Every structure is written in structure tokens, then in C-alpha cells.
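Worked example (supplementary).
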Amino acid sequence: MKTVKVYGPGCKRCEATEKMVRDAAGKLGLEVEVEKVSDPKSIAMAGVMSTPGIAVDGKLVHTGGLPDEAKLEGWLSA
Amino acid sequence: MTTETHDTAAPRETPDWAWHLGVAGFAAVWWLVYRQLIPFSEWVTAFFPVERHSHTGEAIAFFVYDVPKVMLLLALIVFAMGVVRSFFSPEKTRALLSGKREGAGNVMSAGLGILTPFCSCSAVPLFIGFVSAGVPLGVTFSFLIAAPMVNEVALVLLFGLVGWKVAVTYLVFGLAIAIVAGFVIGKLRLEGWLQDWVRDIHSGANAPVAGEDEKLTMVERYKLGLEAVREIFARVWIWIVAGIAMGALIHGYVPEDLMARIMGADAWWSVPAAVVIGIPMYTNAAGVIPIVEALLGKGAALGTVLAFMMSVIALSLPEMIILKQVLTLRLIAVFVGVVASGILAVGFLFNLIF
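After joint prediction of all chains, the assembly is encoded as:
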């Protein structure tokens, strides 16, 4: 099972990103553990400078803005 | 009726040439529409059963001309900036700025503040990312002051409503304040006034960078431009309509010289008052500039009005609360003090010159 972390202090786009991750996982029929990280210290430690950021299994795959849906599905199923 | 349905069943990717053509076509249509704005607004105003040169008539004409004009300008510029910004990223900007000396670093940083995609909600991670990678504190501040203050929404509204001279003035002096304030903060050597945990972080620099945006195609850049337009409009349209409605009322009903007395160049205290009133006000450029335009028309002094606008946009209480996570109160106080002094200087200077 993959662990996905969504980094964001709680702005609208961060919430939208978290929802996109859950929806994409549901669409692909994958079981994914989604964790929302909103503590600024942890966000910075992960190397995210523009939120929302997404990490899959500890690897940062996206920062800044909403992710592209097709790419998101790619990261989840890789 | 039913024979056509197979076409819509499988949505195909739009080919690249269609995108280029679409963008060019849109620019052409934009130009045609923009040129018809005055006849259009007069035509709409004529539908209202009021005298054209009455207070109400003036207010309506102002509203139906300015709202579409500002929306059109905004759509064009925000799209263009979205495309331009796709060539920049906070990571690239950080790499350019890290280890830079103060002075030249402040100038570069303020400039990059305009071009780098930035959302005030990521101010904290960005701040830490910069400082931990060896970007000097003062240079980081130049970025953080310029990025929200000199933004395309403010510039478009100033250009569209007040005129290009004031827009350019705002751009030049906004940058100047960001550069000088950052430089001064850097000279004060306040690194010790960061929150303790921030000083201990050194991970940002060697953390993995999501480099997928390195090789974007032009079409992907168009899409980012469109996304920027969609997002900005969702956020500011209500402010623009409300601001322009407010401005229209001022235009139509406030007596000519009232503002000259309260906000005129002779009232020296009006500049500091404008700055102080501006800090807790949290609207954005979109809401404040139409009002500013109307006040100018009623005799308010340009310097006072600029100071008010810069204070509203650059010094916002919510942003300070966010920054409290990384800066000590003392450092925030210095930040506010330095930026406010810069704004005051600009205000007085303009009241003196114009």
C-alpha cells in the first residue's frame, strides 16, 4: 500500500489537492493512505517551497499548484 | 440527431496547432471587443431611464464601462503572466539567489518576486526554503515584500482605472521599497531574531526538487495561464464589482472638494494616517484600487492614496500572523517599521512632487 503525503498549510488548493489524490486512488481502485501535513516545519523539512506538495512513499513528486490529473494517476500507479 | 453522438464519446486531445490558433484568435477577438467598450457602455447607459449627465447617469456609465474594461485587461494580463511564470519556479529562484551578496541580491530578489509563482499561503515554507539554502535574510525579505505588493492585479487595475503613469510609478516605487527595505533589514543582522527552530533547519537545500516542470510544452504553459485566469477571477471578481460600484457611487455623489480637504496634499498627517488605516484592512488590490481612482478624481493627493494602497496590499495583518511561525515578534516589528517608513517616504515624496 502506498503512503501519500499532501503538504499544505490549509489553503483551498491544498484541500482540493487532497481530494484529487483520494479521488484518483478511488478511480484506480488502489488502496492508498493519504496523510495531510499542515505543520510549516514539516512542510519545510520535506523541501516543499510552494504548496500544495505531494510525496508518494517519501518521494516528492509535485510542488506548487494543483497536480495534473493524468500525472497524478501515474504517480499513484507507478 | 443520434448519428453525431460517437464524436463526443471519446474526447480527443486538442492538437498543438489548435491551441496556438486558439490563443491567437482569442487575442484578436479581445482587441476587437476592447475597442468597442465606450460605445457599448453608452449604449447600455442609454437603457436606463435617467439623465445621462445626472449623478445617477454618471455612476451607471462609470460602472458599465469600468467593469468590462478591467475584466478584459485582467484576463489578458493574468494569462500572459501565467505563461511567463511557467518559466520560473521557487526552486530556480532560490538557486539564483543563494549566496548572493546584499545589494545586487536585493535588486534581483525583488525582480524575481514579481516573476516567480507565489501564493501567500506558502510564504512560510518559501521563507524557510530560502533562508536554509543560504539566501541572505535581507534578500529573502526583498522577495517577500515585492511578491505580494507588485502584482499584476494591482498593476492592471491601476493602468485600467487610473492611467499608465500611476501604474508605472507604483511598479517602480513598489520595487524600490522592496529593495531598500530588504537591504536595511539585511544590514541590521537580525538572523538571531528568527524563531529558534528555523535557524536549525538546513535540510531545505539538499531536499529533492520536484523537477517535472523543467520541460513543459508550450501547450502546458497555455494551460497554466488559463488556470491562473480561472483562479484569479474566482478570487477577485466580487472585489472588483464591489470596488467599482463603490467607486461609481463616490464618482456620482461625493462633493468635488471633500476629499481634497481630508486627503489633500496640504494635510501632512494624511499620509501616516493612510498607512496606519491600511494595515488592518485586508482587502486586495482588486477592491481598493477602484475606490482609490474615485478618491483621486475628487481631489485626494496621489501620494496619500499611493501610501494607503501600498499599506493595504503590502502590510496585512493575516500575513504577519502567518509569519509569526518563523519570525519573532521583534523581527516582525522591524519588518513592519522598515516597510512602513518606505511607504511613508513614497507618500510624502509624491505629495511634494505632484
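Two points are worth noting when inspecting this output. Chain B has a mean pLDDT of 83. Chain B touches chain A through 31 residues (CB under 8 Å).
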